[in-house]
Specification:
The complex is a heteropentamer, with 2 copies of chain A, 2 copies of chain B and 1 copy of chain C. Chain A is α+β, with helices and mostly antiparallel strands. Helix content of chain A is 23%, strand content 36%. Chain A folds into 2 domains: 223 residues, Rossmann fold, CATH 3.40.50; 127 residues, OB fold (Dihydrolipoamide Acetyltransferase, E2P), CATH 2.40.50.100. Chain B has a single domain, classed as Orthogonal Bundle (MetI-like fold), CATH 1.10.3720.10. The chains are: A alpha+beta, B mainly alpha, C alpha/beta. The structure holds adenosine-5'-triphosphate (2 copies) and magnesium ion (2 copies).
């Protein structure tokens, strides 16, 4: 649980942020200079807001009215800074274990596990100065993970990392959140990462938080196009695994009025899953087509059509009580004679579906293509 | 030690230290080391306070620290004599309560050396503290380190080159201190006659020229040794600190 | 640190200009009595203030009457023990083999040739004060006052003249005697300056049993011989 | 023209790199710690290689055999460092114009233009310390752009920038390369960026360059899957604009045996274009379907089918003399009865096609979705 | 200046500087400023060389710089006299060729002050140079700045806090320098009698206590003023340098 309602001045920026989340991963999303780092610094206790409060789980970290202002070292926040801020005089290993020997936080996490996850095995005796950009970033992540935090703040932690490494780390963070119950405040410019990882999305724009809420809702909102990056818009679909097809490596997911086939190798029947379906990956057909490699085809009802200038149109369709967005050309809207209320066939390539898992007892989601 | 040809006799004599010289040398090292041992931690503390905090009296502390530099050493020595001398208020108190006496013994010489070298230590150390990125201390705190621990594990080690630099200036000054020492604790062989004072003594009569020259060489040699040691240490330190630039 | 037993060395605070003489006398005294002696040499003023501040000195040897008087006034020395042990004369020196001159304004000017005359500091160093008095009484002060180079001690005056940095210098006869690189050009007659006397006294706080013996020894023939051999005058001492 | 063949030691890394490119954008791609930064430092003259040579256009920057080793300041390389390395004591403006007043490089580029492009207008009087992470990065880019370089080295320049800003900067870099003719050496972890921007792709792996070549070829190579990130594989197709449909905002591109419709608003008939088509966006149909929103459907012949373990299969098809890759499920391969030599219908959503322009006289490519 | 009640007369007298005091004060400022003006650039150069280059003789230069600190000032003054005196090898040369003479005038006092304060300047400046990230100079070069320009526009400004710190130590030392000055250029009122020498003079006469006290206050006051000015300057500098942490 994260409950933030603060205002304050940072340089020329007038920050006024208000949002709440139920734990899990809360993503801060906004343009460069919108105040993301400033906001995280206030939550971490590095900048004192002028008013408001900050609560994590049941602990009040800051409350201007109540005169509460826990010092940084008492907040137990694992902070991955945007600039890694490694200790230049300490070896990688001493950096990683700093919270243990200097912060007296024994830490429940295993050093070896984190070292393996981040691929730091061969770097332990090195000094930060000799590390590459991505290596520094990984050490910074490891240092925060090992600090036994009750909240993890990660300020663009994967910016300099390659896809393979991201694909290792993201599920780990997911698991940390789900299994260990550590909430994460995640700053990222990558809507991919945000969509894949977060439960709650907070939009930050010029120091304000014009909107926040469950990530699915937020990604479906068209009024936030500019902030979230329109072409990355999509929908999150809730479903339940009904069957695992080991022969073809496919998993069947019941989403209510349809069953989707997705590539997956780690699901069990009965698992609750969330699927991210990007608007650009959804095609529509006026009549159910046959003989396509596209495996997912089901009927849906057009709820709205937003035609924009330019070549694109955004179609919102409902399947049962869930929503799916499609982006097609305006030309196709005309060709297929689409209108609100019409029933169309939604086509989604299996390979284009991202799977995310939620719920405490679930196994770790694996390295699926994003 | 090794067999020496008789023709080398004079040269050998020249390089063999006489008892009085040994005495002065050892005393100098003792005084300078003691001065450093006591003054350095105080200098580090003072430098840190001056570097990181604005408190009422900041300017006064800063000025007091520098005062021994601005006044002629004789004056500082005289002030020490009046304050810490056997009949001085502080001296009397320390003597009565703790049995510590600075009057005319080597601890007094160390006190004079410490006071005189204090400003030379504070300045470089303060600069080093100011050069340490305070964001690193923030990072340490965010990892649970309390203020003092963060200081000891991050800021202090990163300021070590400056502390070493200050220590060297201080040590060199302590070794060469003359004016305040001779004024405060006089020039007593074996007790307060350091190399610098012995050198002065030698220059007081024409026949002392050779002795003065020898003493100059000894002082220079010790200083060289200390400097070289410090350079080696500094280089290692810089290597360990990774240049301080993460 | 200095054990308060009789074994403690006898501590003598002596003017730095007396160093050679004092050390030689001390050696003889040690040999004869077996009493260990330790000397502390510094400027007379410094020593006087230290004795006043309770320095562990048993004997104070001053190169200057004023400072001895000061010490007496402060109760730092026992007035009844103060007595002169030697006296000195002032001389004008030049580089070796310079011709003697007369103490006349014109001759000095000529010898200086626009350069400065080295002298011990006329305010702080006794030799300088005596020098100033002598020059004044000879009516030379006006003409050379602006051409003086007052130095911190006599040794630098000597070095300066010896090297030719200053063509003339004003020092004690004792100094001129030991420095082979200078020649005495003129002597200042007695009476042109206050008596140049070296005085010794027991300090008030000193408690060394042999201090009085040393004070006595300073006036005996052996000590006088040593002092004379270094150019000090001892004839008029009682 | 860029011709690099060097070897040297950097810390524990044994670097041995050899590649050449014909100018344009050369991308360095490799995992964190593979030696990308070290290699760029050698080219920039900050690290001296032990042997080999470096040539840019007609200038030899380094030649161990010939004893040539131009000092940094004589190489005229605009270097955007991975860590921004702004001058902390100078204002943003003085940082930007440093090359002019301190490097005596008058610079042909206009300060205002660069400031506008990078959105630095309000920051000119600020000190770097007060900038946000992305702002620093932008200033670093601007500083290099304004240094009148004959080669631009950019080490992950967009890592901390949001999509909108990237979409502003990438076409600018493209134009710089094409119009002004400044070659760019671009380090990035984002295959999107690499694919969109570069002509030549150099793979770096543990200090070696196992492969380099035209980006289209490289992306089509299956043996580099690990390095390029398999799910980003695709193909580059060359074509010519034949018609611009202003009504629907579509451009028709003749790719030889087929005409594709892509969303575009800035092309002219006759323009040569390159299209990037990702394998995951390509569907196949056994028989030509009808009534789909998918606008591009054309026949192609299956050249090869690589079935992998897991759910995926990669199909390589030929259209005329060009190749297209499709990634579909193994299940669909079986369902549609696909085999090498069979003719199938290739389906590609218009909205999924990335357009890149090449050739000197072409107008600036605009902000298209990636 | 403003009307003064007669009862304040004594106090006013005490605070009014006497001509000799004025003279010493102005001379001190002149000497210290001249010493700084000449020695500081040299110190910056030396510090930079010591910080950034390993050359043969590195250790020797380093040791020579520190020598005046280790030796009693009187010895340094004596060496200066032997070297730069009218008949000294360098002194004679300078006098004959350039007509510059250090002997017994205020320029000599400045020389002595400069030499004595040199090690105090070099150390903090060197530390500052070492603390500047050399990668910034690399960046400057990559933007076309030649070595010297890169130094002048990047490294030097970033080292300014240290240079200022060194300058202060040096200035304070130059103001208080006594032993080398009196030895080298003697104690000539109006020419070489700086505050420190005047102060020394006062302490060397039994009746000089009040004069010494006054002079101490004057010296302390000037030092305070210089220190406060330097602190203000340093604060502005740090603000301009953005803490030096980009
Ligand atoms: N000390 C300061 N003085 C003036 N402006 C400041 C200061 N500190 C921050 N700002 C401004 O506040 C804004 C928010 O900065 P912040 O670092 O929070 O941005 P951000 O959202 O993290 O951006 P990025 O994604 O680029 O890291 C920026 O425009 C920055 O320039
Ligand atoms: N001084 C050094 N000592 C030891 N190893 C070093 C040193 N400098 C670099 N390395 C190693 O060389 C490798 C290459 O570093 P480089 O910075 O070139 O990587 P990179 O490809 O740029 O990585 P990234 O994408 O993370 O920035 C890294 O593993 C790094 O740890
Ligand atoms: Mg930020
Ligand atoms: Mg790198």
């Amino acid at each position: 649980m994260l409950d933030v309602d603060i205002s304050g001045q940072v340089g020329s920026l007038d920050l006024e942020a208000k949002f709440a989340s139920d734990g899990g991963v809360t993503s801060l999303f906004g343009q460069s200079g919108s105040g993301k780092t400033s906001l995280t610094n206030m939550i971490a206790g590095l900048i004192t807001p002028s008013s408001g409060h900050i609560r994590v789980n049941d602990t009040t970290l800051f409350d201007a009215a109540g005169g509460v202002n826990l010092p940084v070292q008492a907040r137990r926040i694992g902070h991955v800074f945007q600039d890694a801020r490694l200790f230049p005089h300490l070896s990688v290993k001493s950096n990683l274990t700093y919270a243990r020997w200097a912060g007296r936080r024994p830490g429940s996490r295993d050093l070896d596990e984190v070292v393996d996850l981040l691929g730091l095995g061969t770097l332990l005796d090195r000094k930060p100065e000799t590390l590459s950009g991505g290596e520094k970033q990984r050490v910074a992540i490891g240092r925060a993970l090992l600090s036994d935090p009750r909240l993890l703040i990660m300020d663009e932690p994967l910016a300099n990392l390659d896809q393979a490494r991201r694909n290792d780390i993201l599920p780990y963070l997911d698991r940390l959140c789900v299994e260990v119950g550590i909430p994460i405040l995640y700053v990222s410019h990558s809507i991919e990462e945000v969509a894949r990882l977060s439960n709650t999305l907070v939009i930050l724009s010029e120091g304000r938080t014009p909107a926040f809420g469950p990530v699915a809702d937020m990604l479906a909102r068209t009024d936030l196009g500019r902030a979230t990056g329109r072409h990355e818009a999509g929908a999150l679909i809730e479903g339940k695994v009904v069957q695992v097809d080991d022969v073809w490596g496919l998993t069947l997911v019941d989403i209510g009025d349809a069953v989707l086939q997705i590539p997956d190798m780690a699901a069990k029947p009965g698992d609750a899953v969330r699927l991210r379906i990007r608007a650009r990956d959804v095609s529509l057909a006026a009549i159910p087509p046959r003989g396509l490699s596209i495996r997912n085809a089901f009927d849906a009802k057009i709820k709205s059509i937003s035609e924009e200038t330019g070549p694109y149109a955004e179609i919102l369709c409902s399947v049962g009580d869930q929503l799916i967005r499609a982006r097609i050309t305006r030309a196709s809207v005309a060709d297929l004679d689409l209108f609100t209320g019409k029933t169309v066939t939604v086509l989604i390539k299996s390979v284009a579906i991202d799977r995310r898992q939620r719920g405490p007892a679930l196994p770790l989601s694996t390295d699926v293509p994003v | 030690m090794w067999p020496i040809e008789t023709t080398d006799r004079a040269r050998v004599d020249f390089f063999d230290l006489q008892p009085a010289e040994w005495q002065a040398l050892l005393l100098t090292l003792r005084v300078a080391t003691a001065a450093l041992a006591v003054a350095l931690p105080l200098a580090v503390l003072t430098a840190y306070l001056l570097a990181r905090y604005r408190f009422p009296g900041h300017g006064i502390v800063n000025a007091l620290v520098h005062l021994p530099l601005v006044l002629p050493p004789v004056v500082t020595g005289y002030v020490l004599l009046l304050t810490f001398g056997r009949k001085g208020p502080v001296g009397e108190f320390l003597d009565n309560v703790f049995g510590i006496s600075f009057a005319f013994n080597w601890t007094g010489a160390a006190l004079a050396a410490g006071v005189m070298s204090f400003p030379l230590m504070v300045r470089p150390i303060r600069l080093s503290f100011e050069a340490v990125n305070p964001k690193l201390e923030e990072a340490a705190k965010s990892l649970g380190a309390h203020r003092l621990v963060a200081f000891l594990t991050v800021t202090l080690p990163l300021a070590l080159p400056g502390i070493l630099g200050g220590a060297i200036l201080g040590f060199a000054k302590a070794m060469g201190e003359f004016g305040a020492t001779i004024t405060f604790v006089s020039n007593i062989p074996g007790e307060t006659r350091t190399l610098a004072l012995a050198l002065y003594t030698a220059t007081q009569t024409p026949s002392g020229d050779l002795a003065a020259f020898r003493l100059t060489l000894i002082a220079a040699f010790v200083a060289f040794a200390a400097l070289i040691a410090s350079e080696v240490l500094a280089r290692r330190l810089r290597a360990r600190l990774g240049g301080g630039h993460a | 640190l200095i054990p308060a037993t009789a074994q403690a060395p006898l501590t003598v605070f002596a003017a730095a200009s007396m160093r050679e003489a004092m050390e030689r006398i001390g050696t003889v005294f040690e040999k004869e009595t077996g009493v260990e002696i330790v000397f502390s040499f510094a400027g007379t003023g410094t020593l006087a203030r230290q004795v006043e501040a309770g320095a562990p000195a048993d004997v104070f040897v001053s190169a200057d009457i004023n400072w001895m008087t000061y010490a007496e006034d402060q109760g730092a020395v026992r007035p009844e023990t103060v007595h002169p042990i030697a006296s000195n004369a002032l001389v004008l020196i030049g580089a070796r083999e310079t011709l003697p001159l007369e103490l006349k304004s014109a001759e000095l000017e000529k010898a200086l040739g626009g350069a400065r005359m080295a002298i011990a500091d006329t305010d702080t160093v006794p030799a300088g004060r005596y020098g100033k008095a002598a020059l004044e009484s000879l009516g030379l002060w006006q003409s050379v006052a602006t051409q003086l180079a007052p130095m911190e001690n006599v040794r630098i005056v000597l070095a300066s003249v010896a090297r030719g940095d200053t063509p003339l210098g004003l020092v004690y006869q004792t100094d001129a005697a030991i420095e082979p690189a200078v020649s005495v050009l003129a002597e200042f007659p007695e009476g042109t300056h206050p008596k140049i006397e070296y005085l010794a006294a027991l300090t008030t706080e000193g408690d060394h049993p042999d201090a009085t013996a040393f004070l006595e020894f300073l006036r005996q023939q052996q000590a006088r011989d040593i002092l004379r051999s270094l150019g000090f005058l001892t004839d008029k001492m009682k």
